[in-house]
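User: I'm writing a short report section on ligand binding and want a predicted complex to refer to. Could you take this sequence and adenosine-5'-diphosphate and write out the structure as tokens? A short remark afterwards would be nice.
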Amino acid sequence: MTSDTADPTSATNTVARVLLAALCRHPRALVRLAAWSVLEVAPLLLSGYGVARALDDGFLAGRPGTGLAWLGALAVAVLAGALATRHVYRILAEIVEPFRDDLVDSVVGGALQRSTVLGGRPDSGAVARLTHQVEVVRDNFAGLLLLARSFVVSAAGAVVGMAALTGVVGLLVLPPLLAGLAFFLSSLRSMTTRQRDHVLTDEGVADSAGTVAHSLRDVVACGAEDRAYARVQRQVDAHAEAERTLARMAAVRTLSVAVGGWLPVVGLLVVAPWLLGSGSTLGTIAGALVYLTQGLLPALRALVDGLGSGGLRLVVTLDRLVEAGERPVPSSGTARRSAPHGYDLVLDGVTFSYGRHAEPVVNQVDLVIPEGQHLAMVGPSGAGKSTLAGLLAATHVPDCGEVRLGGVPVGDLDPQTLVGHRVLIPQEAYVFAGTVEENLRYLHPGATRAELDTAVDALGLRSMMTRLGGYDAVVDPGTLSAGERQLIAVARAHLTPAPVLILDEATCHLDPVAEERVERVLTGRGGTLIVVAHRISSALRAQRIVLMNGAEMVWGTHGELLATAPLYRDLVGQWDIGQENIASGRLAGRSWPEGPRGTLTSGTTGRY
Ligand code: ADP
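Assistant: Sure. The structure tokens for the complex follow:
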């Protein structure tokens, strides 16, 4: 994989490999392209010879008809060339368009995988790659193919034509041409670096502007407009500087063309008297000049300009796309094991924050959740309960420390195993447009009708099922209430054999009686049940309660927390009810309040 300081040579090699592979996929198209290319440059190949004959055999020999006939032959060659151009573009599309489609696949695939991999962040640069850079590569690849083949044919034609007209003098074209090319190619390495800076700063502008636009509300709310402006401005300045440096590199191109293209012309003019004296005609010298000024010079200029701008853009942009298309590797370097030993869940020194410079939401937490335990998480809104649930479910990757299931780091479990071992049910229950049965069986397609019936009756879905029209009825998710969607999501999880269920306020839209029934059924199925509790009644049913407040965390039974954690007492006290009611568990139906945030304990925190 390349990086921002990537070696230009390795970038060029990578790109050459990718382009060659793209070309090799279409061998027949390449043969047709070569054939039509020769026809396309036929006017050029004939031009010097035709002009020489038109002058020597025609106009200078007093036979204007012959002169005009040669010029007419050149005009016919131009028409044939135009016809060939039409075919060349068609063949070019056959090669370039599939290449573009492959790039789009690779960019989208890479971005999606990076964004959805455990702990991944949205890949905002992918939009710039998709909308801009893929088109840059497509256009420049096609342009470079056109230029390369016309340079080869034109340069070869010019050298051969010159040699045929002026004998060995024609070969004098080669040294300056090769010197000009060598000078240009030797500067390509540094040009590639500059071009890469240009692409990176371009992405930087898109990325920073996108981030600021996305967070505009927060930026304004925090009064951070100046900082946001400065951040975007820095990227714009860097991009402008890269643009200026690139413009300066144009001087190298001009010098290469002067040496490789104009020196042969000067050489021909200098030796013209000697050529005339040694038997060459005015027509041959004019024809040689045509080859140099109409064939070699424009072909060299086009190649140098094309390579120096479009070619470099192609190398750098394509290298970047290849890099962006690479799939992320699993977070752990170890081979993925697929068999946890038991289902104890362990957080070992786990720290997690939502950004490199953000305060940790979970800080240095050690927690053991034995297999089969019913655990509730409580705490004020924003305390980190969902984050902890995400860490336990392995949808979040810790910055430090480790989460283990059955002794195996969750990052080492292959995704299929992980899916089979734990189910996370979020607050926003996802019901898709399909039949009721498809929705219920989604996580466990092997569930039988009898198992569906048992789950539906136990969890209280029967009346909804009847109203919808049975298992085969198609569900319109928009017509279901939030509570009904949650019931379907809970039943879907219940039907799986997963030994660990994690409910992140997954029953918050159910009434207290329905919620109690759901938790009773889920506890009864065996396995570990972790509930981010929405109501105190939910916490009271758990064997252990984890109380969270930012990066602080304590745990114990309801009684232990009442005795030791002022915040827990405050949270419970929000319902304005007596201690007897709390102790006797008559708190059903009360939701957790917002805040207060304060001291968690009067004494112990510990490892359960
Ligand atoms: P809870 O579930 O207790 O309400 P969360 O775990 O959702 O708390 O959030 C804990 C903290 O992390 C909050 O300050 C919240 O703003 C922040 N947070 C949650 N999700 C994100 C996210 N995707 N990006 C940045 N910050 C987040």
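A remark for your report: The chain has two domains: 12-187+249-325, 345-600. Confidence is low (pLDDT under 50) at residues 1-5, 327-335, 575-590, 593-608.
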